[in-house]
């Protein structure tokens, strides 16, 4: 009888060969693995849900989702598009479009004509030339007084003011586009032409616009 024959079997049943039955893993261990996987899935879903809630209540800042990034990008682009550009130079008329009346309010003769001729050489149109009205005659103490309609204060008179340093600007009741230069007691000469021309170029240059900033998201 073989040594592997169980007692009492009388040798009727014998174990032969070199193969042995395999041991199956414990069912309890399989259940533990399945429970761990399920727990991990639940925790993942809870975490994702928490992120979504935070995203909703914070307005999507931080770009945690694709939708949040897109919304943030669009908002930034709209804000940039709505921004007003930096203050631009207001459109001002060139000297050739400005008609200037030149009046002398001083006792010195010939100043109105001399000044008018110089302004003409600098490109201005010349209207009336003569002595100042009684309202201003011998009453302008500074270099000069520039008169025009209220609308001319920020346009034609600004350009004319480049020609006479220290001149005062004043609006009157006129409706026309012409402006007046009233020569005062402190007048000696017009501003140097080179300096005046540079000032006119700066004033009448068209405003520049800022190119929009492109940003990729």
What class, by secondary structure content?
alpha/beta
Mean pLDDT: 75
Assign an overall shape: rod-shaped
Give me the count of strands: 5
Strand content: 5-15%
Radius of gyration: 47 Å
- Could you give the order of the helices and strands? HHEHEEHEEH
* Biggest sheet architecture: 5 strands, mixed
| Fraction of helical residues | 25-40%
Distance between termini?
Answer: 85 Å
The total of helices stands at 5
Strand order of the largest sheet: 2-1-5-3-4
In short:
With 217 residues, the chain is of the alpha/beta class.
List keywords for this structure.
five-stranded mixed sheet; 5 helices; about 220 residues; alpha/beta
Structure description:
With 217 residues, the protein is α/β, with parallel strands linked by helices. The protein is 35% helix and 12% strand. It is built from five helices and five strands. A five-stranded mixed beta sheet has the order 2-1-5-3-4. It is rod-shaped. It starts with 26 loop residues before the first helix and ends in a 13-residue tail after the last helix. The C terminus is likely disordered.
Protein topology:
Layout (H helix, E strand, L loop, with lengths): L26 H31 L8 H17 L16 E6 L6 H11 L3 E7 L12 E5 L7 H6 L6 E4 L7 E5 L9 H12 L13
Parallel strand pairs: 1-2, 1-5, 3-4
Antiparallel strand pairs: 3-5
């Amino acid at each position: 009888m073989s040594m592997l024959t169980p007692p009492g079997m009388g040798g009727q049943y014998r174990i032969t060969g070199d193969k042995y039955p395999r041991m199956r893993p414990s069912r309890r261990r399989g259940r533990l693995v399945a429970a761990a996987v399920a727990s991990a899935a639940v925790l993942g879903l809870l975490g994702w849900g928490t992120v979504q809630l935070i995203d909703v209540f914070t307005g999507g800042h931080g770009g945690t989702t694709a939708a949040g990034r897109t919304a943030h990008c669009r908002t930034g682009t709209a804000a940039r598009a709505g921004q007003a550009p930096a203050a631009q130079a207001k459109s001002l008329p060139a000297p050739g479009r400005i008609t200037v009346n030149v009046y002398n309010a001083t006792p010195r003769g010939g100043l109105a004509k001399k000044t008018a001729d110089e302004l003409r050489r600098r490109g201005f149109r010349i209207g009336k030339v003569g002595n100042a009205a009684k309202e201003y005659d011998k009453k302008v103490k500074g270099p000069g007084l520039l008169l025009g309609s209220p609308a001319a204060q920020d346009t034609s008179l600004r350009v004319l003011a480049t020609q006479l340093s220290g001149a005062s600007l004043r609006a009157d009741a006129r409706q026309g586009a012409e402006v007046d230069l009233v020569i005062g007691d402190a007048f000696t000469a017009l501003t140097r032409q080179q300096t005046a021309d540079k000032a006119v170029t700066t004033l009448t240059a068209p405003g520049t616009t800022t190119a929009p900033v492109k940003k990729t998201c």
